[in-house]
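Interim report to the steering committee. The following record documents the input for CHK kinase-like domain-containing protein (133 residues).
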Amino acid sequence: HSESLIVKLPVQGGFIYDLAKHTEFYDKEPVFYERILPKMNEKLNCEFSPTAFYSPRDKVVVQSDLAPDYHVGDKENQLDFAHAKLFYTTLAKFHASSLAVHRDDPTLFESVKGETLYSAGSALQAWIELGTK
């Protein structure tokens, strides 16, 4: 038996690297996949994402590859009603399960809450706002 995996590593160089080293850019995602999402899945007996695996390396996320069963939708025609309904139903379950997990253990979310990049008065905020004018 073999399994294809996706390994998400921090960028090593360039603009994103320079930006990330001054923020918690890569710190939150592993915590979410390893500690929070499994509890959310358990609440509703629903899998919201690919299976995540423990990584001994800091700031690394390892997940099962969904490519064999994944289909990219048609960008021109977008979603039909049945698929849009499925999406919004699943999104509602995702948010409901996060609220239920937070209700049971509010401290679990402490390490992932708060804005990572776009904080008020930051250089990134000014850069984005200038770029969208």
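Strands lie at 5-8, 52-53, 61-64. The committee is asked to note this result when reviewing the revised timeline.
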